[in-house]
Amino acid sequence: MSSRINIARPQPSAYNVDPHGLSNSRPSSGYRSANPDDPLEKLRAFSKTVEDNIEIYSQPLKPHLPAIGRFLIVVTFLEDALRILTQWGDQIWYLQQHRHFPWGISHFFLILNVITMLVGSSAVILKRYTEYAVGGLLGVVIIQGFGYGLIFDLNFFLRNLSVIGGLFMVFSDSMVSRKALFAGLPTISETDRKKYFLLAGRVLLIFLFLGFILQGQWTFVRLFVSVLGLVACVMVAVGFKAKWSAAFLVLVLSVFNVFANNWWSVDSAHPQRDFLKYDFFQTLSIVGGLILLVNMGPGGLSVDEKKKTY
Fold first, then answer.
1. Does 275 reside within a domain?
2. Which among 63, 115, 123, 149 has most CB atoms closer than 10 A?
3. Which residues cross the membrane (predicted)?
4. Do the beta carbons of residue 198 and residue 296 sit within 8 Å?
């Protein structure tokens, strides 16, 4: 007699996509798209459109920005050298009578300043021996502050900090194509040095605008421009949207310079003319530094650069 064994087949179970239980048990919420009606999104989109348009229409000018910036930075030194030469007698009299310079020392002081400013400015414009040129012009800023007794004048101090910032921008610009002098020696890389000089230049450049905020009478327009300018200065210092903040400061300072320091409208015999002329060309120098910032960008030590990393 034969027997039949019934073997029960196992029923196929449902497919388990995560047999080990390693996945997140929460249901996925999916990608949430930006709300086009959100005011912040509208502002971001408008800002992006403005930046793109500026980038497109400024292309023809971009190759010339470094040369324009370098010339404007040193134009205050060229004007100062010309003023010393054309007012030689008045300069000697002031140094000897008011600053008590001995005869001969006053002459040497002025000659040294004129030669350094002319040679240093020419070297910066021609991009030759830029490091030495910047060092010489920095020396002129310092010794003039002590020589003319203006080192403790707040307006002079803030303006010259900005001029020094412009010179740092020139030094940073010269590092772009410079080769290492001593290959193989353990030195700070050109990229690192450029980052630090760009940071110092950015921070120092904004002091002129801070001086503008501190002086003069307050009006509604002045308050409005000062608030916008202060925000732009902070953005330049930290390197957030630095190019466009610097471009805004270039526009504001250029308009302010033409209307506030209009030395050409003052009679040549009026003593105020020289002060306005001095302020006008110093402001041009800071504008030149900001133009170099627009061209080069804020460098590695900035919010803009960190945003690219993350």
1. yes
2. 123
3. 105-125, 132-151, 157-176, 196-214, 220-240, 247-264, 284-303
4. yes
